Amino acid sequence: MKDDGRYIYTVSQLSSSIKIVLEDSFRNIWVEGEISNFKAVAGHFYFTLKDDKSELKCVFFKSSNEKIKFEMKDGTQVLCCGKISIYEQRGVYQLYVAKIEPKGVGELQLAFEQLKEKLFKEGLFDEAHKKPIPLLPEKIGIVTSITGAAIKDILHVLNKRFSNVGVIINPVKVQGDGAKEEIASAIEEFNMLGNVDVMIVARGGGSLEDLWAFNEEIVARAIYNSKIPVISAVGHEIDWTISDFAADMRAPTPSVAAEIVIAKKSELADRLDEIEKKITGFPMDMIKEYVQRLDEIEEGMVLRFRHYMELKEENFKLLSEKLGILSPVGILDRGYSISFKLPNKKIIKSSEDIKSGDLIETRVSKGSFISKVGRQ
What we know:
The protein is of the alpha/beta class. It contains ten helices and 16 strands. Strand 15 and strand 16 (368-372) form a beta hairpin. It starts with a strand and ends with a strand.
């Protein structure tokens, strides 16, 4: 309004005028800075962009931020695109963000690293949680696109390796809107039905964006919570996804997953033949081993018995020598004699044991003789 030739603005009018000027002058601009004071309210993001000299308030409405992949948090260096305008109720200018990207690294790569770190800390990649892949599954569940190259490769390899193995396919979208939900639901359905022994979650190669459904938290948690072992086979050998880390086993390609999940029928037949030969030859090997052992025992017993007899013979010889020394016969050999009174052959120990006219027998070393006692 005018007063004495002056044009006087109300606060609201001035804010509106400044808003028009700012929006006309700073529309669709890029601003670089570090996020601070970040907070989310009802899905809307409020934060401050700062450098070493200044700060700029920013608002990132839910309608614009819903498809952001990485986690916004204090300290992250970002590039923000939007317009400068006035928040009229407070009379402060701020940046209304339309899109945002991390500085120095792609948005998807940063989101990948952030989620990988988060799930690692929660233990979703722990080796102790991983389940073994069954050797001979009766039925294999496959979660992939029914029209992609991955399913063709998997079925081709399975048919060559073991043509009559059971296969159940749960077709899903493998990229784009709704893909992550379909993949997670398919994994959960197999667990609910319990109709397969192992699962392959797969898709062919592509860019990081093409493979992104397998880098989503909902898919990683579905794999982690699966009671059925899961083989992740996403992309090519150089491609790694969050699904690979969460799965019980990672295969570099869908074809390799098919090779891992079941052995060749011919290889199994060869292994069975080897086992049969071992089982058949096992009793004979045992008999031969026991025969050899008996021979060793017999030989040992003969040696021990021979040694025992030699010791006994030596002891007998020693005792015989001792007895020979102590026996009367041994004394006679040294020049002595022994006399017996006849007829009862009582040993004569004293001259008082005989009288004149008695007959006596005297034994010497070689032979004996009889004599008659004369006068004493």
